[in-house]
Amino acid sequence: MAELPVVVVGAGPQGLAAAAHLTERGMDAVVLERGAVAGAAVAEWGHVRLFSGWPELIDSASRRLLARTAWREPDAGYPTGAQWVRGYLAPLAAALGDRVRTGVAVTGISRLGRDKVVEGGRHMQPFVVHTRDTSGHEERLLARAVLDASGTWAHPGPAGADGLPAVGETAAAVAHRIPDDVSRFAGRHILVVGAGHSATHTVLRLAELVRREPGTTVTWALRRPAATALFGGGADDDLPERAALGARAERLIGEGLVTLVTGFRVAEFRGDGDTFTVVAEDGRTVTGVAQVFAHTGFRPDLGMLSELRLDLDPALEAVAGIAAEIDPNIHSCGSVAATGARELAHPEPGFFIVGAKSYGRAPTFLALTGYEQVRSVVAHLAGDHAAAARNDLVLPETGVCGGAGAFDGGSCCAAPVLQIRVRG
Questions:
Q1: Spans of all domains in the chain
Q2: Nearest in space to 178 (alpha carbons), one of 79, 50, 58
Q3: DSSP letter string over 202-228?
Q4: Is residue 252 classed as helix, strand or coil in its secondary structure?
Q5: What top-level class would CATH report for the domain 169-296+405-423?
Q6: Is the distance from CB of 339 to CB of 349 less than 8 angstroms?
Q7: Which member of 62, 68, 241, 272 has the lowest number of beta carbons within 10 Å of its beta carbon?
Q8: Are 381 and 127 in contact (CB under 8 A)?
Q9: Cβ neighbours of 82 (radius 10 Å)
């Protein structure tokens, strides 16, 4: 199997970084990307500005590879997704050349001649990666190891509070992406569901529309019964762009441009002509809604991994070895410990889930964490176990509660006192 390549699924930030590390260590890499270009998922939110600055968005091996080209490293500022693609991901994919294959979807991964049940000789068999390109052509690619860096972007969570689409949700106008141009919603009632950074971005854009078009109404629905941790850590947050985002949201809500509704767990969508009514589990309603933005997290696609032996946390669907560090039910303030090859290992030797997908349904994944993951995993594959075990990760202090808090109230640590208009 030493003659076979390492297959990397996904040409996003972590997938491309993995290929750069593999190349630097003299190992053959093949990166398979479903999208038409590298960084396709990032490009879909290209209008959104990142919390991390340029130094935190560039992987070390990738930087060394790009230094041998005409690339000029951006050295300051907080790029948008589009700028990240244009200034780093696209040049990196170009430097990797034909190692990156776009328009190729991975439909399944297994062991050659062995389904999940078969034990005999299993670990001596190479991986077999099933693919389908945009023309429908199917192929099998053999690999010595596989890194799944396909992310979770294509699988957003529903608005329904029980983890399943609410009654009537699939027929309703529900979007899951942060909007760019919101002018089409002028004069309408828009509902935003969710408490994370994507929801905050959407609320900010819509609040500015309310300022320009007073007939526009925005309601922000939180599943949590309190808004105590909604606006982040303020001055304690070492990611200043994230702190600024929370401060702007708090200010706009304080001005009355957005109505905040807490403890609202969506159960049903009822059509009402060209609008609809959203019903909570406790019977409360939000009426006259023309559009819903559901920013309720993302989920990993595990379908293509069905013939592999995995060790996943049953609740988070995250890699079991890191689940305790990232569980939003218990994770408190402070930095998450480094997650390397040892923590990311599965019962299937040579297979690793890296990047946002390694976190499963858990939120708040940083590019720096993913870069450290692939550095350690590639070192392990190269037999450099000292480097694989080393911890090179230094994360900024969040100053923010990472946990979801108690289901019926409270949070895992203190938050600023808020003076905002809230409907309970």
A1: 6-155+298-389, 169-296+405-423
A2: 50
A3: HHHHHHHHHHH-TT-EEEEE-SSS--T
A4: helix
A5: alpha beta
A6: no
A7: 68
A8: no
A9: 16
Q: What is the SS3 assignment for 90-107?
A: HHHHHHHHHHEEECEEEE
Q: Between 197 and 123, whose confidence is greater?
A: 123
Q: Which two tokens stand for residue 281?
A: 């589990």
Tokens 């923590």 correspond to what residue? Answer: 343
Residue 174 forms beta bridges with which residues? 292
| Residues forming a β-bridge with 139 | 131
For residue 229, pLDDT beyond 70: no
Q: Provide CATH code, domain 6-155+298-389.
A: 3.50.50.60
Query: CB of 184 within 8 A of CB of 206?
Result: no
Q: Rounded mean pLDDT of the chain?
A: 88
Q: Mapping DSSP to helix (H, G, I), strand (E, B) and coil, where does residue 423 land?
A: strand
What local confidence, expressed as pLDDT, does residue 408 receive?
36
Tokens standing for residue 168:
């009537």
Cα separation, 10 vs 146, in Å, equals: 11
Judge if 6-155+298-389 and 169-296+405-423 fold alike in CATH terms: yes
Scanning 178-319, the segments in alpha helix (DSSP H) are 197-212, 240-254
Contact 153, 14 (CB under 8 A): no
Q: Per the structure block, which two tokens stand in for 316?
A: 């988070």
DSSP 46: T
354: left (phi over 0), alpha (psi -120 to 50) or beta: beta
Residues 385 and 291: their CA atoms lie apart, in Å, by: 52
Of the candidates 364, 353, 370, the residue with the CA atom closest to the CA atom of residue 326: 364
Query: Does position 50 have pLDDT exceeding 50, yes or no?
Result: yes
